[in-house]
Amino acid sequence: MHALLLAALSTATAQEAPGFLLGDDLRYGQMGAAPRVLSDLVAIPAGMPRRKGENLAIFTAFGVTTLGLMWPTDPLPDVRLDRL
User: Fold this and answer.
1) What digits encode the pLDDT tens for the residues 7-25?
2) Which of 4, 39, 47, 69 supports an S-S bond with 19, CB 3.0-4.6 Å?
């Protein structure tokens, strides 16, 4: 019983190290808007392997839908949906 309690406490208090281009030095007020946007454009895709399965599924669903509607066909897929 004590081992389970200690294991639960150690996992609850253990903090994960920030990922690539993540940390307190990149927070609002510490860095300008343009460098923060550029770091986000790199950090978000670079952090995808660290995400949980459900987050990856949501990201993939939105990404595939967005790219699918922007696919260069004549007429565009979103125009076809609008004409239904």
Assistant:
1) 554 554 455 666 677 777 7
2) 47
